[in-house]
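Technical note accompanying the year-one report. For the benefit of new consortium partners, we illustrate the data format agreed upon in the data management plan: each record pairs a sequence with a structure-token string. No post-processing was applied to the example shown here.
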Amino acid sequence: MGLPHSTLDTLGLPDADAVSAWQESIGVMFDTRLNAGVDPSFRAEVDGFLLGDLALGRCSAPAQWFDRSRRKIERDNLDHIMLQFYLEGSCGRRDGSSDEVTRPGDLWVTDLAQPLASGTTAFSNLNIVLPRRIIAPLLSQPQSHHMRVLPGQDPLVKLLRSHMLALISTAPEMREDDAVSVLSPTIALAAAALNGVVDEAGAAPVASAIMGSIRRHIEHHLANPALSASAVAQLFGMSERKLYYLFEPFGGFATYVQDRRLQRCYEALIDPDLHRLSIAEIAESMGFLHPKSFSRAFSRKMGMTAREVRAAAGQRDTVPLGRQNGDQWWSWINQMR
């Protein structure tokens, strides 16, 4: 079976609809604004593939600004690292802290869990989105890579770029079992490029496999109030200290579990098929036994109360363009938890 494949091309749409379609799709990660003086004839293209736990794609679009506010971060709960090779055009900060911008071949790094204010010229780039859970254990400083520009002439950066170009060119012929075989080397190479050194052989596949298994176990048992660090550590034959270390990039084991439960509650609240369930019933189904504690945690994480989320969902009379299809690349980004 071939890899999941998704495309977006605004060619042929009226200018306003083209911009809207692009902003709706890229809105899963960024708020965007066209730069002043941009040609009103707007065209954006994305060609994406899903390789197991990561998304790979090629993108081109006109000059614009990209933003991720703290409020957006709290609401969308994305926790991914995005690596972008700018093949044409450039990207840089807008906060004035650096005047460094990418040149063709350079690597731009975005930590989607941190605020962002960047700007691009008209560009074409190659990008890969990796959930933090699969790459953070391999990084020497997981939180320090946001808005970095890595020179394209660096040997490890050059090697990663060549690898990604090979992946995107062969992806149309790849099968899902092929993706499994290239996943660990891709993650290891990405970590090596960010760290500036090659890690110990075998460390990446082992760490990724363990973390993936634990995460799948948590997803299957989120509704169980008895889900605990001690029980999970015992099941996977490790110490609680080791488990806490693995989940340190997420703020700890308990924080990770609560965040996943809150995200599930959010999804249930906006699901019209579950509107018959009360907020209390939804919270209880995800292991929240105390309504007041749930309300505080939900509001703090989402920036809105559960009642406000449900009310807002009920007022929507249209579905954003393209989002009705769960096979679209922007849906993959949301699903890669």
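Partners are asked to follow this layout when depositing records. DSSP finds 13 helices and eleven strands in the chain.
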